[in-house]
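Dear colleagues,

For the upcoming journal club I promised to circulate an example of a predicted protein-ligand complex. I picked one with adenosine-5'-triphosphate because it came up in last month's discussion. The inputs are reproduced below in full, followed by the predicted structure.
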Amino acid sequence: MRRSDFEAIFEASPDAILLVGADGLIRGVNRQAEIMFGWSREEMVGEPVEMLVPEALRDDHRRHRATYRRHPVSRPMGLGMELQAVGKDGVGFPVEISLGPSSDRSGELLVVCAVRGLAQSEVLRRVGAARVLAAESERKRISRELHDDVKQSLTAIQLHLAALVEMMFSGERAAEMVVRIQHDLDRCHDSLDRVISDLMPLELEGHSLEFALSILCRRAEEDDFVVERDIRRVGDVLNAEGRLAAFRIVQEALNNAKQHSGVGRATVRYWRDGQRLCAEVTDAGGGFSPDDLKPHLSVGLVGMRERSQILGGRLTVSSEPGAGTSILLEVPLRSGPRS
Ligand SMILES: Nc1ncnc2c1ncn2[C@@H]1O[C@H](COP(=O)(O)OP(=O)(O)OP(=O)(O)O)[C@@H](O)[C@H]1O
Ligand SMILES: [Mg+2]
């Protein structure tokens, strides 16, 4: 095919296509991109691609771009998230974006971005699917906990009771066995407390989020795991739904630090900065590449993002292999749910 044929195909593509340089500047766009974003070709070429990203997400986008530059591969953008683009009229709309690395004549990275608008029905279908997955994963976790802790303890109690009955009939000392059964019952009690608290954190009922977070940190400090905390008094700035959403985000981030970081230590911070409520969980562990995660295997992170949307807030996941992880939740208090 001749060069002009390729150009004709580029122009006729039903997806909007942007060519973006390593410096983040738009090098070329096709006709569909003009229609989708409402800017003319001349208005877009030479501008930073962030002009097409909602303002609140531009910093995140610059960071993701830098990561992509280091690992340029063909892949969809975003982690099962609803991606938003913004047009000339300033109105955001849901899109799906795929990225592919190419190079310009001088051998510099040129990223081909195919952008497809999503119909509202598709957005709703995806949100629904993510919710079902999140609920399933929550059920699996509870069932695992019930199986591993409560059921094991009950089995131990059954066995010890049977032994006790035999001892009583054979005249052996039964007191020791009674103490063991007491111990099993204590463990069972603790496990049930944990499951109940996971299902609905009772410490949130009638208490501030800072109180519930302090208890969460204390509970996480088992099996030699240390949680450093800097939890400030913020007062009643979120309603019950908002408190639960923020609590769940910190809970999942802390669970992840415990399960995946590979270091026995994490830090939880909670504070208010003017009209912004912030919560952050960090660890100095193994880290990961957020861009490489598969949405269906990352239900915890997808759930965190959904909850931050419920809060009208922003979740920044910063992690790199070998460089630790930080999960930062920021909620603007003017627009977030309040009591
Ligand atoms: N603090 C962390 N340190 C290192 N890797 C992490 C950290 N947090 C998340 N990850 C990586 O991201 C992946 C996705 O996390 P996510 O919470 O979505 O799922 P999960 O923890 O594997 O499963 P689930 O939360 O559904 O039980 C993890 O499997 C892990 O590889
Ligand atoms: Mg997780």
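Two points we might discuss: Residues 119-199 form one domain. The chain has three domains: 3-118, 119-199, 203-339.

See you all on Thursday,
B. R.
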